[in-house]
Amino acid sequence: MDIPFESAFAQQVLEAVTRLGKGNRLRSETLRKRLCEKTGLLPVEVEDGIRELHRRGLLLFQANARGQPVSGYVGFVRERRVISTEEACWNASLTAEGFDAAAIDLLSPLASRLAGMTVDDIQVLAKCLATLRDSSGLDTLNHSGPNVSARTMMGSAKVISRIPPKAMALLGLDSRLLSPSPRYLLHAGPDQDAAPAATLLIENPQAFENAVVAGLADRMSLVCTFGFALSYVGQVLPGGTTHQRRGEPLVLQRCGRKRSIAEIFGVDQLHFWGDLDIGALKIYLACRSAAPTLQLSAIYRAMEGLLLDPMRSHPYAEIFDKEGQARLSAFPEQAVDIEPSVHGLFKQCAHRGVDQEIVSVADIARLGGMPY
Predict the structure, then answer these.
(1) Which of these, 34, 90, 151, 336, is most buried using a 10 Å CB contact count?
(2) What angle do CA 207, 297, 326 make, to 5 degrees?
(3) Distance from C-alpha of 263 to C-alpha of 122, rounded to nearest angstrom
(4) 184-367 has which fold?
(5) How many angstroms separate the Cα of 18 from the Cα of each of 12, 165, 360?
(6) Closest CA to 66 of 272, 350, 276
(7) What residues contact residue 3 under an 8 Å CB cut-off, 6+ apart?
């Protein structure tokens, strides 16, 4: 019986490794970069997958203290394929619906999600997929993935989002259907028509509201991107490319004059303010790769001294919802391009963090318009 991966990213990393490898090994110095490119994952997510594959004996290398390859080559061991009952039934059902071998191979990852379905249900799902493939009436449907999926795939809004992109292309389905739901960006800014000189990206909604209360929206644009959604905002930052599959996020206005994505991000100064922990700083680095002018906000000055106070900072433990960060490296992969002050913040928060909601309204007002 196969043991499920603990990491949410290990399977994607494993599949990418087997596609990249010539023979059974890869150069370690380019491994992370190429895996990020192939999977679309963040560096920290790729590292998480590499660690588990190494523990399982599927990736072979000399590891450093972070469980990452040191140098030279990384070898890999292909898992022995065991065809599950669901996969056998899925393949037979797809064949019965006229899918060729190439399509069946691309659709095989769906088999791992079929546990709990009867043979009849699996056959119906294959028939729904065949109907969708052959449909000429898709243009009459709202081109939203959840809408089309619910109307064509057994009443489920989620099935289409599970189909691998290459399978979508082979079946002639619009890649925009893979967008799981509308993406929202919360904005606040001045009432006047003139564009603000600066935009502040804020990680969490309560801190965004605190910044509005502090009056920052009277003189600059504020953007709440809800934690890890910052990774998709990187697609619309200056210098980035909007991902055609996901499209541009919809702007929801908290206060002030409504502005377009181009107005919000096409400013002279672009600042970032999130939690003071490893995860938030690595999100900042991911966004900065799309927008080299992005800087940390001076609001971090009000937070860094708190890391030395055990009453106002916390370890990376489960009760603080940060147990995953205990396994992350506090040393950024993008070290060459990062200024010493940001290196310093990574070192300071190596073992403890401070959430951004701790900052007072007075400190937000005082520091919010300046870079760190």
Answers:
(1) 90
(2) 70
(3) 48
(4) Dna Topoisomerase Vi A Subunit; Chain: A, domain 2 (3.40.1360)
(5) 10, 18, 50
(6) 350
(7) none
Look up residue 254 and give its two tokens: 């908290």
More confident position, 221 or 179: 221
Spell out the alpha helix ranges (H) of the chain: 10-20, 31-39, 43-55, 85-96, 101-107, 119-134, 145-152, 159-162, 165-170, 205-213, 230-233, 261-265, 278-290, 301-304, 340-348, 361-367
Question: What are the tens digits of pLDDT across the range 57-86?
Answer: 888 888 887 778 887 788 877 655 556 788
Q: Check whether 298 has a pLDDT greater than 90.
A: yes
Same fold, 10-76 and 184-367: no
Per-residue pLDDT band for 31 (boundaries 50, 70, 90) equals: confident
Strand-strand pairing, 184-188 and 352-353: unpaired
User: Residue 243: what pLDDT?
Assistant: 42
Can you give the pLDDT at residue 234?
56
Residue 277 CB-density burial (10 A; 0-12 exposed, 13-18 middle, 19+ buried): buried
CB 118 within 8 A of CB 109: no
Domain 10-76 belongs in CATH node 1.10.10: yes
Q: In angstroms, rounded to a whole number, what is the distance separating the alpha carbons of residues 188 and 198? A: 12
User: CA-CA distances (angstroms) from residue 55 to 49, 52, 135?
Assistant: 10, 5, 46
pTM of the model: 0.61
What residues form DSSP beta bridges with 253? Answer: 187
Q: How far is Cα 30 from Cα 26, in angstroms, rounded to an integer?
A: 8
The domains of the chain are located at 10-76, 85-178, 184-367
